[in-house]
Amino acid sequence: MNASDVFRETFGRMPDLVDAAVDGLDHNQLAARIDAQANPVGWLVWHLTRVQDHHLAGAAAALGWEGLTQQVWTAGGFAARSGLGLGDDEVGYGHSSDEVATVRLDASFLIDYHGAVHARTLDVLGRITDDQWDAVVDERWDPPVTLLARLASVLGDVTQHVGQAAYARGVLERA
């Protein structure tokens, strides 16, 4: 087993967790907050998917992997279908409470978008060779971010937010 196998296994668990977090919730439930400032289930799933999409496309671009450098959000038509009118690179990082409230998407959209990003993620993971893990994919940081560090960061973010979404859903269902 190598690092790609570990990432494939762990990212491979996310579609079922995303589905469990949003499936069967209506538009209002997906936008409901468990307190006035909490991020709702729908926003959390949109955000975790946007981060994964954005960061993997950026890593693929840094490595020169043709066909994997565009975000699924734009190339797959999800930005247009969402009707959110956000910039192509908007992932929700730093959203104010009011901005969070504007992200209202239905469960089928979230599941479809996450599924498409998951498929792209598997494509990216399938290209990685053992000598590429230390390749720098983002020089804006000190130290520069390697492919391994970027994927570990994305996986941590995705895992944390899908857990938050599941928790918020549970609270809403018991309320």
Quick structural overview:
The protein is mostly helical and 175 residues long. The protein has 9 helices and 2 strands; from the N terminus they run ααααααααββα. The chain has a single domain (3-174), classed as dinb family like domain (Four Helix Bundle (Hemerythrin (Met), subunit A), Up-down Bundle).
Describe the structure.
With 175 residues, the protein is mainly alpha-helical. It has one domain: Up-down Bundle (Four Helix Bundle (Hemerythrin (Met), subunit A)). Helix content is 62%, strand content 3%. The chain has nine helices and two strands; from the N terminus they run ααααααααββα. It has helices spanning 3-11, 14-22, 27-31, 41-62, 72-75, 78-82, 97-102, 107-127, 147-174; strands at 136-138, 145-146. Strands 1-2 form a two-stranded antiparallel sheet. A hairpin with a 6-residue loop joins strand 1 (136-138) and strand 2 (145-146). Helix 4 packs antiparallel against helix 9. The longest helix has 28 residues, at 147-174. The mean pLDDT is 96.
Strand order of the largest sheet: 1-2
Please mark out the parts with pLDDT under 50 across 5 or more consecutive residues, or reply none.
none
Strand runs, count: 2
**Which percent range describes the beta-strand content?**
under 5%
Q: Give the overall pLDDT as a whole number.
A: 96
| Element order: H for helix, E for strand | HHHHHHHHEEH
CATH architecture: Up-down Bundle
Whole-number count of domains: 1
The CATH class, by name, is Mainly Alpha
In percent, how helical is the residue content? 55-70%
Radius of gyration: 16 Å
Based on secondary structure, the structural category is mainly alpha
